[in-house]
Amino acid sequence: MATLDQCRAALDRLAQNLSSADGKVRGAAALDRSLSCRITDLDVTFLGRLAQGSIQDVTCVPGPPPDKAEIRLSMTGDDLVALVDGQLNFARAWGSGRVKLEAGLRDLLRLRTLL
Questions:
Q1: Following DSSP, what letter does each residue of 25-92 receive, concatenated?
Q2: DSSP state letter for 55
Q3: Are strands 100-103 and 71-75 parallel, antiparallel or unpaired?
């Protein structure tokens, strides 16, 4: 089971990857939306903002998210680490229910480039 520190490091790597991306990926990440990532097995939620092509202002709170973010992810810590490391395909994980993604239709259409 991934630790809280490993999950935070994975989110930091994801933020770095997004900020250094170009082309369609950079455009898809250019949204300005609130973001939550619930880590179910650790019973914590990372909160932040997807803005200017990166994930910013990341904080961690115990339990479920206190407010409904515009883009909401939910998964285990191991799945988060595997996704960021490229060992788990997002589309397959989402299709099988291992990863849950909730967002408005417009955001989902833009985010598909990242998936």
A1: HHHHTT--EEEEEEETTTTEEEEEEEETTEEEEEEEEESS-SS--SEEEEE-HHHHHHHHTTSS-HHH
A2: E
A3: antiparallel
- Amino acid identity of residue 87, one-letter, is Q
What is the rounded CA–CA span in Å between residue 100 and residue 31? 19
pLDDT digit string, tens, across residues 1-44:
999 999 999 999 988 877 666 665 555 556 789 999 999 999 99
Burial status of residue 36 (CB atoms within 10 A of its CB: 0-12, 13-18, 19 or more): buried
pLDDT tens digit string along 68-99? Answer: 999 999 999 999 999 999 999 888 998 999 99
**Among 108, 112, 80, residue whose Cα is nearest residue 93:** 80
Strand partners, 48: 35
Instruction: Supply the DSSP symbol for 9.
Output: H
* pTM confidence score: 0.87
* CA 1/CA 100 separation, integer angstroms: 19
